[in-house]
Amino acid sequence: MDEVKVVVAHSERATLQVGDVFLKIDSDQTNIDVEVEAIALAPIPTPQILWRRPPVLALARVPGMALGKLGEPSPASPAAWAAAGAAIRTLHDAPLPPWPGGNLDDITEHLDSECDWLISSGTLPADLVKRNREVAEAALRPWTPAFTHGDLQITHVFVENDQVTGVIDWSEASQGDRHFDLATLTLGHEEVLPDLLAGYGTDVDVDVIRGWWSLRSLRASRWLVEHGFDPNSPGCEFDVLRARM
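That's the Aminoglycoside phosphotransferase family protein sequence above. Prediction below.
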């Protein structure tokens, strides 16, 4: 009998694995609504939806292995990263999903609130936060909306034989800034960015990607701390921020 494995669990959601089936349990069913619709719309490989019985969504395992893990060197080849870049470009060039994403004013307000907390709580030195807030400014500009995954972490893209076999976890998909997806996938893995862009294309502003590295790390740190994760682990968010100094 297959054992039950806890893939991720916190107060908002949990994902369990039983054999080749993943069970996603979410306290907010609108997240699952987005995931189901985004999977149907995305023009790239996605998990097969087996069934849905709120609050549970059952998905089939995608073949292959993840591109890597935050804090560890990526085991994927340059060709695999290029294939990921090509797949992401296909997604970004697809027709927009019918629901909007975050707006610039809300993103900026949230960023400044998180920076204030990081400094006032003593979680990070003020000069480190202020320097990364300056770097993040490059991302805070108008953008042409694209069909974005919204949470394109390195563990969410699977490859096999240098081909993308599946992209998972679509609950944050929306109309968004394509640079955000590229930055999220390469967070903590700056060395693979040239390989990713070899497949994606060269019409990318690397300074904007760097801005999103800082912005995402600043905005995510308090949530990670409060939900039992450690952004100070080697190669993770705090190291990303320190690399900008």
